[in-house]
Amino acid sequence: MNDINKLSKIADINTPHETTPTEHESHGQKRGLSSTNWVLIGFLLIFGYFLFMEHRAHVWEYLPWILLIACPLMHFFMHGKHGGGHRH
Predict the structure, then answer these.
(1) Please, are residues 52 and 59 in contact by the beta-carbon 8 Å criterion?
(2) Rounded distance between C-alpha atoms, residue 3 and residue 43, angstroms
């Protein structure tokens, strides 16, 4: 192979190629959250705050049991996500 062919191949590799716009950019869609989603998030935060403040005595009372039941539930529902769900 001669030197000119080698240089042209190197130039092709090092030349930046044009990128195509992503699906969101090509359709002109916004990437942020809509106002409806922001309202929902705000409502859920306020609701969660008042729920916790009114029932915090119950939460602290049952927190050790909640943590203990969370471990087997996470193992049961999330075990198949890694390694194809091999049996033990």
Answers:
(1) yes
(2) 68
Query: Using CA atoms in the order 59, 60, 66, 71, what is the torsion angle rounded to 10 degrees?
Result: 130
Q: What percent of the chain has pLDDT over 90?
A: 23
- Checking if the pLDDT of 82 tops 70, the result is no
Q: To the nearest 5 percent, what fractions of the chain are helix, strand and coil?
A: 75, 0, 25
Type of residue at 26: S
Q: What is the pLDDT of residue 60?
A: 83
Q: What span, in angstroms and rounded, lies between the C-alpha atoms of 76 and 56?
A: 28
First to last CA, the chain: 57
Asked whether the whole model's pTM tops 0.90, one would answer no
